[in-house]
Design brief:
six-stranded parallel sheet, about 400 residues, 12 helices, Quinone Oxidoreductase, Chain A, domain 1, seven-stranded mixed sheet, binds nicotinamide-adenine-dinucleotide, binds zinc ion
Length: about 400
Amino acid sequence: MKAVCWFGKGDVRVENVPEPKIINPHDAIIKVSLTAICGSDLHLYDGYMPTMEKGDILGHEFMGEIVEVGREVRNLKKGDRVVVPFPISCGRCYFCQKDMWSLCDNTNPNAWMAEGMYGFAGAAIFGYSHLLGGYAGGQAEYVRVPFADVGHVKIPADLPDEKVLFLSDILPTGYQAAEYCGIQPGDIVAVWGCGPVGQFAIKSAYLLGAEHVIAIDRIPERLRLAETFGGAETLNYEENEDVVEELKQRTGGRGPDACIDAVGLEAHGTGLGIMYDKVKQTLRLETDRPYALRQAIQACCKGGTVSIPGVYAQFVDKFPIGSAFAKGLTFKMGQTHVHKYMRPLLERIQKGEIDPSAIISHRIRLDDAPIAYRKFREKEDCHIKIVLKP
Ligand code: NAD
Ligand code: ZN
């Protein structure tokens, strides 16, 4: 079968690889009907994850039809259509039972390594390095889904793939980020990053009752989408030198009640700001250019919340803890507990409250993945969200 494989920094290829097989009674094999490239895949593409191996299959946002199930899978059968959540969760451990699915204790055999190197050990993730379990990803014709009997939602036939695919990751991620803000009536929310996660964070902030959302980025088509899809007011950080001051001005001097960092490691649109030091196994901030998380902390209203869906790892310096302390800020962050949100968000899609397909900018064949990765990385030709059809 064909699959999108990682071969090194900036080197992604479509290869012929063996088809996956059931190896555990709780597995299912899925024939992928639609998959997507995520901003998180760019961290792999940029070489930030040291535990990728040549030939690893990428992809953690995918859906499709079940073609085979292990003997213990009782709630799904051949022919069912499912969206697969990106964290692999056992559903039985202390954390899964508390609805903290992305912190599952049982699915990442390399958790010890993650704990040592990154200071965390959560659930395994499809196609996301050996540090996070080493499971093959879904940018492929077929994929093995472990714990297939946990948390997958069957998709009604009348909903097209494009409307539901993003339940696998970025829709719940934007939603959780907004939910973490504890939005009260009248609140103003600022969102750094108008990538797919930022777009859904903006939309979700309104769904959860925000009065007003201000979206920050530098890429015109993404800012435009934040206005048309999200209904946000926008701020181009290349046109406004002092984002923090500008936000204060636009919020009566107080600052936004909640700030969402939907940027993460990429930090300023170039990806050059954070370097991985292989010898020390640390991340270093290479520049003092605009830095989303720092701005979010500095702009946030006293007593407000900073919510961080953007991915960070290791040590990132120059964190203004003094400002956070003095203002009594609340921080919420982490990988998304996707399983928790899939069903309620599917209902919102069915009711027409949100149409996630509106953010898709490119529809391509699996064969064209290498060029799509490059363009998405460089934010060229209006690449906002790319879906691939195997
Ligand atoms: P993306 O790369 O498409 O979007 C990032 C956006 O941030 C870009 O539009 C970029 O121009 C903008 N940006 C860069 N620097 C900025 C700055 N200083 N101020 C404002 N905007 C800036 O990525 P995405 O798919 O939207 O994902 C965003 C982040 O969310 C990534 O770090 C990704 O890894 C993370 N993510 C986390 C989870 C989770 O479970 N927490 C899930 C999915 C994605
Ligand atoms: Zn993702």
